């Protein structure tokens, strides 16, 4: 995926292991928007489905060694059954490998969950 292209308009679904992996990659690269793998492992439902929706391209002008990323809105299924919203910066190739939501029903259901979810900050511990 070329970062000169428009922001992809694809909803992606991911499992908890993938979420933890993306959080770890973002932390390892020092990307701005992330909760961290320890947070995800502690709070995300082990068998939950989480969703990513790209919002914009982000770049670190002070760090030209880091490629541009997709700043994504993130919907996380928590261990207690609640859902929270956050942000996660994802490299384009990592985003492209994730499972695309193709079912209109699943996309609509995710949208309703997003509308009702509190932000991570409103919910509680962010670290």
Describe this structure in words.
There is one protein chain. By secondary structure, the protein is of the alpha+beta class. It is built from five helices and six strands; from the N terminus they run E-H-H-E-E-E-H-E-H-E-H. The protein has helices spanning 16-29, 37-43, 92-97, 104-116, 120-123; strands at 12-14, 50-58, 69-77, 83-90, 99-100, 118-119. Strands 5-1-2-3-4-6 form a six-stranded mixed beta sheet, sandwiched between helices. Helix 1 (16-29) runs antiparallel to helix 2 (37-43). The chain is globular and about 40 Å long.
Q: What is the fold's blueprint, element by element?
A:
Layout: E1 12-14, H1 16-29, H2 37-43, E2 50-58, E3 69-77, E4 83-90, H3 92-97, E5 99-100, H4 104-116, E6 118-119, H5 120-123
Parallel strand pairs: 4-6
Antiparallel strand pairs: 1-2, 1-5, 2-3, 3-4
Describe, in short, the structure shown:
The chain is of the alpha+beta class. The chain is built from five helices and six strands. It is globular.
Number of strands: 6
Indicate the proportion of strand residues: 25-35%
User: What is the helix/strand order?
Assistant: EHHEEEHEHEH
| Biggest sheet: strand arrangement | 5-1-2-3-4-6
The end-to-end span amounts to: 31 Å
- Which outline best applies? globular
* Structure classification: alpha+beta
| Main sheet makeup | 6 strands, mixed
Q: How large is the radius of gyration?
A: 14 Å
How confident is the prediction overall: mean pLDDT?
Answer: 91
Please work out how many helical segments DSSP would assign: 5
User: What are the segments in which pLDDT stays under 50 over at least 5 consecutive residues?
Assistant: none
User: Helical percent range?
Assistant: 25-40%
């Amino acid at each position: 995926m070329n970062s000169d292209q428009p922001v992809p308009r694809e909803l992606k679904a991911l499992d908890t292991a993938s979420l933890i992996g993306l959080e770890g990659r973002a932390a390892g690269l020092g990307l701005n928007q992330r909760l961290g793998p320890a947070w995800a492992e502690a709070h995300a439902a082990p068998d939950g489905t989480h969703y990513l929706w790209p919002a914009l391209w982000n770049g670190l002008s002070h760090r030209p060694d880091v490629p541009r990323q997709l700043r994504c809105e993130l919907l996380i299924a928590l261990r207690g059954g609640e859902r929270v919203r956050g942000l996660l910066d994802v490299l384009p190739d990592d985003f492209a490998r994730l499972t695309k939501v193709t079912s209109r029903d699943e996309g609509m259901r995710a949208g309703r969950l997003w509308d009702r979810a509190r932000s991570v900050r409103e919910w509680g511990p962010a670290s």
